[in-house]
Specification:
mainly alpha; nucleus; Noc2-domain-containing protein; two-stranded antiparallel sheet; Noc2
């Protein structure tokens, strides 16, 4: 089996869900899907009593919905300048609608589709703004359907659109006005926990349900046609406001989620963020089955997107991992069920690779998808089990905390699978993820046994490193060193530098640096590093620059050990007083330690270098500036 087959196997398969939901989705289609004849579905809106419609004062509109009011100021200023004294008179409006109906009948008799003009759009906009007219909304949505299917064969459309300006204005007007009108006539409920509940059942709600679902399907359809980023972002943002009205239709939810996941994993950054907000809106539904669909779809989309990694798509993958982790932290109990299964799947890949021990079996673990999955769960656990977040919850532990141990064991097992120098970049990726967990959850993870072999073997190689003109290896986008880098000076320097920094990062975490036993913890480290430095100096194959870097790290470790010894010299409690020991460790400011200051400087230096490399990659002249 290939990596894709394994990662998509078993409980990750989406086909089961489709089969289970088939009958339910068909029932939803019959109840509220997009009918063959939209005109018939929309016609029932005319039977609603529009006597409740009233003139909305602009001052109240600005207060209740400032975003919508701002949109009107920017795009339809003339609608805000109407005469308030005559705005309430509906006779002309009724006459206009009657005349329009007669014109429609005449057009149907002549079998000629009317052409949509700006004047007609203005008339609908004014009726929507002044009276929250459902008849005007019906006409607007019929025109929107014509815009969505205008270039398709076999479609019976209510309007012909022959102008790009009218098309853009129609699309933007429909997207902005529809949520406002629906909120006015059939408001939904927002619960105390931030979730929402659909509007209560009423004759008006049942009548509007059909046209809302039809409109929503048209929005999904038009998202595949739009090419303008601003309009696409607007379509995703405004369609998310309609979600409370369509959650009862499983087919609409699945189609919309699929489209949003597609945009979230492949579009421009602004559209990615808008799609993520729409996905999070779906996850805020009180329907638990929708939350399950969102969690599963989000993770599988992430796995597919990170199949290969380069300097160009790494920022996008990091954006996906960070945003997806937020969704998994919305409901820890529900997320645990999914996270447990996916972490277990990583363990199964590792077990199979350890049993078979072939090149193909190793590829099940040594690939980008495995690396990013481990890193993703590290981000999720770091966010969910963060000590500060736990304090905000009143000290209540997260339901995801029991997954820290299995994730750490799987990660350490993956490091031990292959130990040659070519696989060191993979090891550093896994170690970086574990340090993230240790930093945020204050969990002690024994990292040095997996970093020290990299440092010691690189400082004292069996053969003298070859000089090379290769550029330094970017460890962020490599999990396996290219063949030409092996046994070269540039590769050895990069390994020692990266390993030393990660070791310093681990030592600076609160679970290590704030430990009252820090001086004793670092004794084996200092002994091994000093021995490696001494061996390297005695060897003619050593690298002077790397020896100096490791020697500087040893000095910082010893300084931090003396700093902790000085702090604990004034304690009056015995080691058995664990509660007092914990209080002492919590009160210790690790950022003021020599190791904390050293890591802070190293981070700034690395960030500056990263920015310079990024500028060079984009060909900017600022690379030469200091």
């Amino acid at each position: 089996m290939s990596v894709d087959d394994i990662l998509g196997g078993g409980f990750m398969d989406e086909e089961d869900d489709d089969e289970d939901m088939g009958s339910e989705g068909e029932a939803s289609d019959d109840e509220g899907g997009e009918d063959d004849d939209d005109n018939q579905s929309f016609a029932s809106v005319d039977d609603l009593d529009d006597g409740e419609a009233h003139l909305v004062e602009l001052s109240k509109l600005a207060e209740k919905d400032p975003e919508f009011y701002k949109y009107l100021q920017e795009n339809d200023r003339e609608l805000l300048d109407f005469n308030l004294e005559t705005a309430g008179a509906q006779d002309d409006d009724s006459n206009d609608e009657q005349e329009g109906a007669e014109e429609d009948e005449t057009m149907e008799e002549e079998d000629v589709t009317p052409i949509l003009t700006t004047a007609v759009l203005k008339k609908w906009q004014k009726a929507l703004l002044e009276q929250r007219s459902l008849r005007a909304l019906r006409k607007l949505l019929l025109a929107f359907r014509s815009a969505a299917h205008m270039n398709e064969d076999g479609q019976v459309l209510a309007w012909t659109i022959d102008s790009s300006a009218v098309y853009n204005k129609l699309v933007r007007t429909t997207l902005k006005y529809t949520p406002v009108i629906l909120e006015h006539h059939v408001p939904y409920k927002t619960l105390a926990d931030g979730k929402f509940k659909g509007p209560s059942q009423s004759p008006k709600q049942k009548t509007l349900q059909k046209i809302v679902l039809s409109y929503f399907h048209n929005v999904i359809h038009i998202l595949s046609q739009l090419t303008d980023n601003d309009t696409m972002e607007l379509a995703v943002t405004e369609s998310a406001k309609i979600i409370p009205y369509i959650v009862t239709s499983r087919k609409a939810v699945k189609l919309y989620l699929k489209k949003c996941l597609e945009l979230w994993s492949s579009a421009e950054d602004n559209i990615r963020i808008a799609a993520f907000l729409a996905i999070r809106r779906l996850a805020s539904s009180s329907d638990e089955s929708i939350m399950d669909m969102v969690l599963k779809g989000t993770y599988l989309s992430l796995v597919r997107a990170c199949k290969s990694t380069s300097a160009h798509n790494l920022p996008s993958i990091n954006l996906m991992k960070n945003s997806a982790s937020e969704i998994f932290c919305l409901d820890h109990a529900t997320a645990y069920q999914h996270a447990f299964g996916y972490v277990r799947q990583l363990a199964i890949h590792l077990r199979n690779s350890m049993k078979v021990k072939t090149k193909e079996a190793y590829k099940q673990v040594y690939n980008w998808q495995y690396v990013h999955c481990v890193d993703f769960w590290s981000i999720v656990l770091g966010r969910a089990c963060d000590t500060e977040a736990q304090k905000e919850r009143g000290g209540e532990e997260s339901d995801l905390k029991p997954l820290i141990y299995p994730l750490v064991q799987v990660s350490l097992g993956a490091i031990k699978l292959i130990s040659n120098s070519r696989s060191y970049p993979f090891h550093l990726h896994i170690i970086r993820s574990l340090i993230h967990v240790a930093k945020h959850t204050q969990t002690y993870i024994p990292i040095p046994p997996y970093i020290l072999p990299i440092i010691t073997s690189t400082l004292a190689p069996s053969t003298r490193p070859k000089a090379s003109t290769l550029r330094p290896l970017d460890f962020e986008v490599q999990i396996r060193a290219p063949q030409q880098y092996l046994k070269t000076r540039v590769y050895a320097e990069g390994l020692v530098e990266e390993s030393s920094f990660l070791l310093a990062e681990w030592l600076a975490t609160r679970s290590v640096q704030a430990s009252i036993a820090f001086p004793e913890i670092t004794v084996p480290l200092v002994v091994m590093l000093r021995k490696a430095v001494k061996t390297a100096k005695a060897s003619s194959n050593s690298l002077g620059k790397d020896v100096g870097a490791v020697k500087g790290l040893v000095e910082r470790i010893e300084d931090s050990a003396r700093w902790v010894e000085q702090k604990r010299s004034t304690v009056t409690f015995a080691p058995g007083k664990l509660s007092e020991v914990d209080d002492w460790q919590v009160a210790l400011k690790v950022e003021d330690s020599p190791m904390g200051k050293y890591v802070k400087v190293q981070r700034k230096t690395r960030e500056k270098r990263r920015k310079l490399v990024e500028k060079a990659r984009h060909g900017e002249d600022e690379i030469l500036e200091d």
